[in-house]
Amino acid sequence: MAAPKKGRRPAGGQSRPGRALALILIAMVALTGGMFWSGHTTPRLGIDLAGGTSITLKAKAEPGQESAVNETNMNTAVGIIERRVNGLGVSEAEVQTQGRENIIVNIPRGTNEKQAREQVGTTAQLYFRPVLAVTNGAPQAAPSATPSGSPSAKPSASATGATADKKSASPTATASTQGRALTEALKAPSPTPTASASSSAKPKTGATPTATPTPDAATAALEQKFTALNCLDPKQRAAAGQGVKPAEPAVACGEDAPGVWSKYLLGPAEVEGKDVDKAKAAIDQRSGQWIVDMEFTDGGSKKFQSITSKLSAQTDPQNRFAIVLDGEVVSAPSVRTTLSASAQISGSFNQQSAQDLGNILAYGALPLSFETQSVDTVTAALGGDQLEAGLIAGAIGLALVIIYLVAYYRGLSLIAILSLGVSALLTYVIMALLGPAIGFALNLPAVCGAIVAIGITADSFIVYFERIRDELREGRTLRPAVERAWPRARRTIMVSDFVSFLAAAVLFIVTVGKVQGFAFTLGLTTLLDIVVVFLFTKPVMTLLARTKFFGNGHPWSGLDPKRLGAKPPLRRTRRAHAPVDAKEA
b/e for 163-197, b at 16 or more Cβ within 10 A? Predict the structure, then answer.
């Protein structure tokens, strides 16, 4: 018989189990060190465990556009609000529809919760409107010849990221100038605030010409509204932009500093929020100041180029465009040159204000307007009670599993308990790291998924142990039985875990909200089960098979051949031949 080649190991064997154990030990140390280095030593908790804020928004359509409140627009709004809130770094913000016209936003207590509440409330459409006139926020008896109190440090829009225009704006806006600006705004989509009155109001044939053109009713009403508007009154601020169509001029308020407001006379919307492709805060490499970079879609680029080419030829304040969200001016930068596909808004920004504006520009284009129905504070008391009950149930289940393992597998239960401990440690550390990394937050369904995973992990150990016992019943010794049982057990474990992971993946894709937490945890623990079985359970079993306690089949090892009913080892014997008679020979 040919001798086996040197260096070849038997099928299913593992010649160096120490390598696998060293690999998983290094991974555990690295992950644990990363957890302590990041400063997040506990997993983030969801709204049901940590408490937070629940906001109910109700969709409202403009008069004559009631059909706009439909499933498509509601789903679009949900996606935009969710991206807007998650863009602030809020963990596990939950946004979902309720009924036909309501959206529920759950914001867990924690990072940027207050800021997220404020931005969720700003849910109207986003528009870029040219500025026709601007003055202080107090009401006036008549438009002043030289308005004061204009924003002194308004940002400027520039293709090259120029610094802000620091000089105080002092536009000249007489009553006749405002009337002409309003007239032109009503007649054309682009503002021409310095156009003459004769070019905007031609008398009809046969009509008696008048010395001074009279603005029409809509112009007069808007001029009166602008004059009487008091931006210091919150109710008037909220009502200023309500019910105004994008193609119509509007009046709006903007906050220049805490408690300091200006009011704006705005032309029709030239660019909509949906025309903005990307927007984010950044630091200008030349000046070191915070700026906001904007990129437009193909259609938005053409619109933006058209309006900036007209605004750049005007004087202040007619060279500004106002970024209007929810009827309020969030920024009114001036235009220095014609812009198209991209632009930079620079000015007296700090990091927070630049990120806020970038977030509004990126996620502000909602297809519907919403009003806040209710804002409720959710306490963690109920969730805490449920969590305590769930943890008690999990502890009871784990204790029953351990009792069963000790009673049935005896010494082998030590391997199972150690493997469960390694799996629990990896699960905890990874959940703590995923909080700041991807915003994962632990909620009650996620805890249920972790409890279910105890059974999945224990099932893998049982499969392997039973395969080893089957080999011992066939009469083999422990060390060969451990190696021969592994390929068969490995296939069964892989198939079982694949089915569990597939179910978790499908559940995560087709569901929303908290159920996704259950699916995510189930999928994560299923993957960790494979890692633990391959890199810990099998190597440890290989090492223990070399000890006398397990190798000789001690009664308390759980691998006693007598208790398992093992067959005697098969041995070959020579066949005895009967003596041959000499005569017969």
Answer: bbbeeebebebeeebbbbbbbbbbeeeebbbeeeb
How would DSSP label each residue in 225-271? HHHH--TTSHHHHHHHTTT--TTS-EEEEEEEETTEEEEEEE----E
Predicted confidence at residue 380, as pLDDT, reads 66
369 phi and psi angles, rounded to 5 deg: -95, 145
The answer to whether the Cα torsion of 172, 178, 179, 184 is positive or negative is: positive
Q: pLDDT averaged over the chain?
A: 74
Q: What is the 3-state secondary structure (H, E, C) of 268-327?
A: CCCEEHHHEEEEEEEECCCCCCEEEEEEECHHHHHHHHHHHHHHCCCCCCCCEEEEEECC
What is the C-alpha separation between 108 and 267, in angstroms, rounded?
Answer: 40
User: Smallest Cα–Cα separation from 131: which of 318, 263, 262, 269?
Assistant: 318
Q: Is the previous residue joined to 569 through a cis bond, with omega within 30 degrees of 0?
A: no
Can you tell me which residue has the tokens 């919150």? 234
Beta bridge partners of 135: 263
Report, as an integer, the average pLDDT of 361-373. Answer: 69
Quick: pLDDT tens for 196-237.
Answer: 333 333 344 444 444 444 556 777 778 888 888 888 887 787
pLDDT digits (tens, 9 = 90+) for 150-198: 433 344 444 433 333 333 333 334 444 444 555 554 444 444 433 333 3
How far lies 497's CA from each of 85, 119, 418, 459, 537, in Å? 35, 42, 20, 10, 16
Rounded Cα distance, 14 and 533, in Å: 14
Task: Check whether 337 has a pLDDT greater than 90.
Answer: no
Q: Tell whether the torsion through CA atoms of 560, 566, 572 and 577 is positive or negative.
A: positive
Residue 64, pLDDT > 80, answer no
CA distances from 38 to 27, 108, 133, 316 (A): 16, 21, 50, 49
Angle (CA) 381-386-392 rounded to 5° is 125
Q: Which amino acid is at 447?
A: V
H or E element at residue 543: helix 538-544
Reported as a single tens digit per residue, the pLDDT across 118-148 is: 666 554 467 888 988 888 877 765 444 333 3
Q: Is 366 exposed, middle or buried (0-12, 13-18, 19+ CB in 10 A)?
A: buried
Beta strand 328-331 with 250-257 is parallel
Residue 520 pLDDT greater than 80, yes or no: yes
3-state secondary structure of 518: helix
Question: What are φ and ψ of residue 8, in 5° steps?
Answer: -85, 135
Q: What is the distance between the alpha carbons of residues 434 and 441, in angstroms, rounded to a whole number?
A: 8
